[in-house]
Write a structure and sequence with these properties.
The structure is a single chain. Helix content is 63%, strand content 11%. By secondary structure, it is mainly alpha-helical. It has two domains: 34 residues; 50 residues. The protein has a three-stranded antiparallel beta sheet. Strand 2 and strand 3 form a beta hairpin. The protein starts with a helix and ends with a helix. 3% of the residues are buried. The mean pLDDT is 90. It comes from Flavobacterium hercynium. One of its GO terms (molecular function) is DNA binding. Keywords: DNA-binding.
C-alpha cells in the first residue's frame, strides 16, 4: 500500500510541474493558429546574417543602395521586420 501512495504522490508532483508548461504551449499554439507570427518587430545585422546568409558587406551595400530600409539608433542598425517581409513578397516569382 505504501508503494502505491508514493507512486501516486510522484505522479501528482510531475503533473503539477507539467501543467504550466502545457498551458504555455497551448497559448503559443493558439497564437500560431491565429496566424500571428512570433518574430521580433526589428532585426539587427546578426539576424539578417543568420536568416538570409548575408555578409556584412552585402548588408552595407543593400543599405547604401536603398534596397534595405533601416533605422539607425546610435551605432545600431535596425531593420523593420514588416518591411523585410514586404520586400520578400514583392520579389516572389
Amino acid at each position: 500500500m505504501m508503494k502505491k501512495e508514493k507512486w501516486q504522490s510522484y505522479v501528482m508532483k510531475v503533473k503539477e510541474l507539467i501543467e504550466p508548461v502545457l498551458a504555455r504551449m497551448e497559448t503559443i499554439d493558439s497564437k500560431i493558429s491565429q496566424g500571428k507570427v512570433l518574430r521580433p518587430e526589428y532585426y539587427r545585422n546578426e539576424d539578417l546574417k543568420k536568416m538570409f546568409g548575408l555578409s556584412n558587406n552585402t548588408i552595407i551595400k543593400y543599405r547604401q543602395t536603398g534596397i534595405l530600409p533601416y533605422t539607425k539608433l546610435g551605432d545600431i542598425f535596425l531593420y523593420d521586420s514588416g518591411k523585410i517581409d514586404k520586400i520578400l513578397r514583392s520579389n516572389e516569382s
